Amino acid sequence: MNAQAHVIDFETIAGPVFTGRNRGERLRQDLQLDSVDAAGTSVDVRIPEGTYAISSSFFLGLFGPSVVKAGSKKAFYERYRFKSPVFLGEVLDGYVSRALQARNLFS
Amino acid sequence: MTRGKHAASAAASHAPSVASAASVADAPPLVPPGRVVLSANLPSLYLELPRDCTVIQPSTGLSVAICQAPPETLLSKGITALPAVVLSGIALALSLRTYFYNQKKDRTARKQSIQDDFWLRKVVSPVSIEPFLAFIGKLCSALPAAAVAVGDVELFWTEQLSEIARFEVAFQTLSLIDKDLLSSVLIRLEYIDDKLAVYVGQLLAHLQDASKPVPDREEATRYMLASSMDLLRLIQTHQTKVLSEA
Fold it and tell me: pLDDT per residue over B119-146, tens digit each?
């Protein structure tokens, strides 16, 4: 288990609504998540209460490749630990399912 | 001698000629072939016939000349046959053109029948396009206004997200027709998803803090309808492209 987890705090990203695949992909590049995934580092994702909406395209642009690399919801959540409003947690869980679904359709 | 010259020129022109009578004192001339003596009493009065003629002189005194028609030259044959040959050539060209045109038309119809009639109408449309049209209509009419509870907005949003996820799967059938078309369609679906997220986010912000502005419901529905029309137009354009390439 990694001692120091990587932190993604949505409070530091311009919100409170997060949309757009391009935006998600750019943020992924800025956060260097490909390298983080390659290193197997854990990631703490903090989504503040004041976040009203996160669209699927933004989420999949940011975390999609990580979900696909993990291969399953369980494996993804073992490395990516989300702390978010309850309502958004359910929404994001749906996005994780869609990322895995898209992987299965195209494989 | 004069008579001989006349006879030679007549033979050359293939026209019979009449030689003038010689004096009675001359010995009756020999009748060469091709000549018809007109009177037994005047053997020098004769008809010079063309080479191709045969003279039959029975004892009745009547003579019958049978002449073959002069052989036609290639040029004369060609001139008379030319219009018929030209028309035949045109008819043949038109027949070939019609044959290839029908072949192409059949190929187009077959391709259109497979792509359009079967895959699009019987497979893709029933599972994706038709339900999508119904969904968009319902989404735009049911989009919550400002006077609803936070919980209702959140529930509405999660329900629509499930529907959009369903269409993401349903539109995968487009990959049977064209993978690029599928990618373009999914992008338009994401536009609708994003707009919905923005509207819901702004509405939740307003419901939780009245100082925040009310989102523009009409603008949101207009945008989502326009995106859905773009999505359908992509499929329509693809169909037109298929037909023009066939």
Answer: 888 888 889 999 999 999 999 999 999 8
A43-46 and A6-9 strand pairing: parallel
- Provide the b/e sequence for A29-52 (b: ≥16 CB within 10 Å): eebebeebbeeeebbebebeeebb
Closest residue in B to A20 (Cα–Cα): B194
Give the integer Cα–Cα distance in Å for B204 and A51.
10
Return the H-helix or E-strand segment holding A53.
strand A53-54
Tell me: pLDDT of B224 over 90: yes
Residues of A in contact with B169 (CB under 8 A): 101, 105
CB < 8 Å to A90, chain B: 158
> From residue B54, how far is each of A32, A45, B10, B68 by CA, in Å?
114, 122, 16, 9
Give the model confidence (pLDDT) of B19-38 as tens digits: 444 444 444 445 566 677 77
pTM (2 decimals)? 0.68
Task: Assess whether pLDDT exceeds 90 at residue B190.
Answer: yes
Chain B contact probe: residue of A52, A62, A88, A95 with most B CBs at under 10 A: A52
Residues 1-60, chain A, touching B (beta carbon < 8 A): 16-21, 52-58
The tokens for A75 are 């494996």
